[in-house]
Every structure is written in C-alpha cells, then in structure tokens.
Amino acid sequence: MSRTSFRTRLALASGSALLLAALATGCGAISSMLDGSGNGGRGGSGTDGDTASVFDLAVGDCLNEPEASDGEIYDVEIVPCADLHDYEVYHDYALDLGASWPGKADIEADAQATCAEEFETFVGVPFNESAALWYSYYSPTETSWEQGDDKIQCLVYEASDDEGASLVEVEGTLEGSKR
C-alpha cells in the first residue's frame, strides 16, 4: 500500500479564494520555531534516519522530504523536531466519504478544506494570512482505500517562494508560531 501526497496553498484574488494545488511526488511535514523545543508526537523520540511507514505517522511527528516511488510515498524518515526537518504532522483524521472509493477529487476537496481549517488551529493564523507557511497532506490511493485506508495526514512546512515549492528546513515546532 502507498499514499499520495499533495502540496497546496490558498490565495485570495478578486475577493474570492482560489485554490492553487500542485501534485508533489513527495511530501512530509514541517516545523518552525515556537520555542525551538518542538517534540514529535512520539515525544521527539525519532533519531536521525529512523524510517517508518507513512501509515504510522502521528500528529507531532517531524520528518524530512521522502522519496517517492511512482509518485507515491511508502516510507518516511522521522527526526526529532528539535533537529532540522522539512515537515511536521499537525492533524490527521479519517475521511467520512462512504465505503466505496469516492474518487480523487472528493478526497482532495475534503483534505484541502480540513487541512486549511486545522492549519489555523495549529499555527494560530488563518492559512491565507500566513506569509511563509504552507500545508501538504498525505491521502489514500484507490488501492490503499480498498484495503481500508481512509486517513488524511495534514503536514505544515515552510517555503521560500510564493508557490510553496522551495522547502526551508526548520527547527522546533510551528505549533502556535502565528507565522
């Protein structure tokens, strides 16, 4: 089984929200600095090079950009949040879209809405007001859905460009950073 990954950014234009989404071949989570002591959901117990299944990620885990195989993610490198890392898992939830494969578009719409909403809860500012922070998410593939995977994992990260494509490594957690 594998998961797909998306990076997305919400922008306002002409008074209406435009969703700018780009399929990424690998994503993860980010973190930045609140007080520099961010720990992963496992108490920051990850050590450099700890590899875990993407299905085992938990809220608070920090990780580096994973390698994608055929555009899908299988394993990720979990690191202590106090160390430099690319992403931080800030929210996860089970989709409530029925038992049958709902289709990629419905999954994307649900994930984008929920991750944007939870971004504000985690970071402390609405997503469309954040200058440097972006979100990404891992979502089920049709194959993983058929095997019971209905989980979305929302990931926050920092980028140095206006499209969220140039990752910036951070230390600590972005929780409550209001950036």
From TrEMBL:
Signal peptide region: 1-29
UniProt KW Metal-binding keyword: no
Keywords recorded for this protein, A-Z: Signal
Stored PROSITE patterns: PROKAR_LIPOPROTEIN (PS51257)
Keyword DNA-binding: no
Annotated InterPro entries: Septum_form
Domain annotation Septum formation-related: ranges: 60-176
One Pfam family linked to the record: Septum_form
Protein name: Septum formation-related domain-containing protein
Lineage: Bacteria, Bacillati, Actinomycetota, Actinomycetes, Micrococcales
